[in-house]
Design brief:
α2 runs antiparallel to α3 and α3 runs antiparallel to α4. A hairpin with a 2-residue loop joins β2 and β3. By secondary structure, this protein is an alpha+beta fold.
């Protein structure tokens, strides 16, 4: 009977807690994405939910832009072989969040010199400006490719500090 009750509520729980979203407040969240550009908006939406769950909503705007840029780079430049996907990991830190984007391309991203006439090429400049730290590393899962990561930390000090009236 208990098993029947659990099975009855399972579809509702899946809607409340989509795949990859842990109900544990401090657990990392791992999500996998296709290489379609529409995944960028979905990743932003999931990150907002996660940050709210972790009490880090204050980082939402900057973190959303950072994940957008990192994931858009992976979609655009990362080689996604058959059966592989792009992976995002959101990891809670004390008063901070670490955003990681894994793809299977060995090519490391680099900040471009700013061309005022270019239509693109500003993503990593934005990431560097918004994140407290960012970098590129080797994947820790043994798969080919790289991880591009960024860390955002909550501002220190009382709200409004440094504001003159």
């Amino acid at each position: 009977m208990v098993k029947d009750i659990v099975q009855f509520f399972e579809p509702f729980l899946r809607r409340l807690f989509p795949a990859g979203i842990s109900r544990d407040r401090g657990a990392p969240v791992v999500l996998r994405w296709s290489s379609h550009p529409s995944c960028v908006g979905l990743a932003r939406m999931e990150l907002r939910k996660v940050l709210a769950n972790w009490g880090l909503s204050e980082l939402e705007d900057s973190a959303s832009l950072v994940v957008s840029e990192l994931l858009a780079n992976a979609v655009r430049h990362g080689r996604i072989s058959s059966g592989r996907e792009i992976e995002t990991r959101y990891l809670p830190r004390l008063g901070a969040v670490r955003i990681e984007v894994y793809d299977s391309s060995p090519c490391r991203p680099a900040v471009r010199s700013l061309d005022p006439d270019a239509l693109d090429g500003r993503g990593l400049i934005l990431v560097a400006a918004l994140a407290d730290a960012w970098g590129v590393g080797v994947r820790d899962d043994g798969a080919p490719g790289k991880v591009v990561w960024a860390e955002l930390v909550l501002p220190v000090g009382p709200p409004g500090e440094g504001v003159c009236s």
